[in-house]
Write a structure and sequence with these properties.
CATH topology: ABC transporter involved in vitamin B12 uptake, BtuC
Helix content: over 70%
Number of helices: 14
Shape: globular
CATH superfamily: ABC transporter involved in vitamin B12 uptake, BtuC
Strand content: under 5%
CATH architecture: Orthogonal Bundle
Distance between the termini: 38 Å
Oligomer: single chain
Order of helices and strands: HHHHHEEHHHHHHHHH
Structural class: mainly alpha
Number of domains: 1
CATH class: Mainly Alpha
Length: 370
Amino acid sequence: MASGQRGPAPGAPGATGATGAARRRAPAGRLTFLGTSALLSALLGVSLVAAVGLGPVAIASGDVARMLGHRLLPWLVTEAPAGPQAVIVLDIRFPRVLLGAVVGAGLALVGAVLQAVLRNPLADPYIIGASSGASLGAVLVMLAGLSPFGPLSLPLSAFAGAMAAFALVLTMSRRGGQLAPTRLILAGVAVAALTEAVTSYIVLTTPDKEVRSALFWTLGGLSGTQWRDVGVPALVVTAAIAWATTRASLLNALVLGDEGATGLGVEVDRLRLRLIVMCALVIGTVVAVSGGIGFVALMVPHAVRLVIGGDNRRLIPLAALTGALLLVWVDVAARMLNQPDEIPIGVITAVLGSPFFLMLLVRADRRTPR
């Protein structure tokens, strides 16, 4: 290599794996990735069937599989299900379980991307203010009793709240015409605190009969999910996963810092802006149908990173699968642990996420030279 010429970083655009050791490790890494992906996909498929059968009315997994098979593959499973169990499986639980998987995948995707874009291991959707903005928008419409768009009024208001909060954060975080990651984090924390304070005030000054539903929304939940709630989030999250995966090598380059990534030909500011806009769109979409669910975006990318490393080409799809798997079972716990009432999903993820967060702090402290 000529003097002064920079070589590409591993995983970055243009990386060629020049050493023989890197070449030998690559096939093993691909096999590990494919094996892990296959395992998680199989676990997710089994979990979807099992979760649909669990609830106040237990339904055998075999019966659930036949009902779902007829709905999804009617030319293969010709026996048409009927009766109350079919209604429970196909119209009540199945859309709810699917939406849980979609929301979990979307949250994990956003966490993985934000942690790379902001170079902050603690980044999550609340950092950009989108989650709290969506909750505020939803609560305003819910408690005001407004429904200008019929059943779509609530998700649309949540989406509008997320976009408004994100626009404010984005405006405050630009310096000299460029996006500054540190300013974005600080602006996100400030906007999140403001919107959460307004939401809390509205809830506290609302008649008691409406407070419970508003509080449940701010803590997250999937009760009452219908088929119309699943399509748009599934489309948005799937497209976002595919698009972010194609940008994974560029995300790897951001680990080198702005100067290092620019030296590799990455348009850092434009890439960061596009990825953050994508994250805001995903969060606005999923919070619109599930409410605010914390810690998933923080926990899942870290857990996956500990197992397969920090290469975003593998991290992004595996984090999405893991997030989907996690939230499917968290939702099962939410509807089973306190029957006949449900526990807000955000309460359970906080119980799981707080010890995980403390573990990360202890781990980081042990690695810090004294």
